[in-house]
Amino acid sequence: MNFLCSWSGGKDSCYAFYKAMQLNYKPTVLLNVMNEYGDRSRSHGIPKEILEAQAKALELPIHFFNSTWEAYETNYIINLKQLTQTFSLSHAVFGDIDIESHRAWEEKVSHAANLEAVLPLWQGVRRQLVLDMIEAGLEAVIVSCNQQMGARFLGKTINESLIEELETMGVDACGENGEFHTLVVNAPFFKNRIDIAIEGTSVSSNYNFANLTLKV
């Protein structure tokens, strides 16, 4: 029952991690894919040192590899196979909710490494899942978002009033359509809070990013 968690640093992967533990799976290692330069995560744009701080707060190892989008799947399977052997894994946990193509891909790469894909949030009601995350004590801040939302949302903490504001704008409460990404800075199962600073913002591919640093 040892599991690897596909770890973005955001609310969905963190909540899936938590729900998998509740189902008696044993957390063993985190996996994060960095960009080709190795300085920040491929999906959320989170600096490596902050992801390492999350892993330390969870008292777990975290494995990184660099990849372009083009080589993403090939590299993912290679690393998944290596980690399966190193940590005697049986399962891989993912935080997707209801996008079938995402689930199909996760099952494909897991099968290639002889792992069973586990999606603890699957088919949950998106808005309710976010409310459940908040109720469970996850503290997540928005670290990237599209131009529909705008840079003013960067650094805001996910709470019920923010969810209502986003839904009024036509933005999905979970950001499941890619509208925004988050960083979890605290949770009841963290050993300590992750203290971050936002030192300005940047724009890449029509997307707004918070320039994050780790407070020491």
TrEMBL record:
**What is the name of this protein?**
Diphthine--ammonia ligase
Task: Work out whether the entry's keyword set contains Ligase.
Answer: yes
**InterPro entries, per database record:** Diphthami_syn_dom (IPR002761), DPH6/MJ0570 (IPR030662), Rossmann-like_a/b/a_fold (IPR014729)
Q: What is the lineage of its organism?
A: Bacteria, Pseudomonadati, Bacteroidota, Flavobacteriia, Flavobacteriales
Q: What is its EC number?
A: 6.3.1.14
- Indicate the enzyme's highest-level EC class: ligase
Q: Where is the Diphthamide synthase domain?
A: 5-206
A molecular function (GO) held by this record is: diphthine-ammonia ligase activity
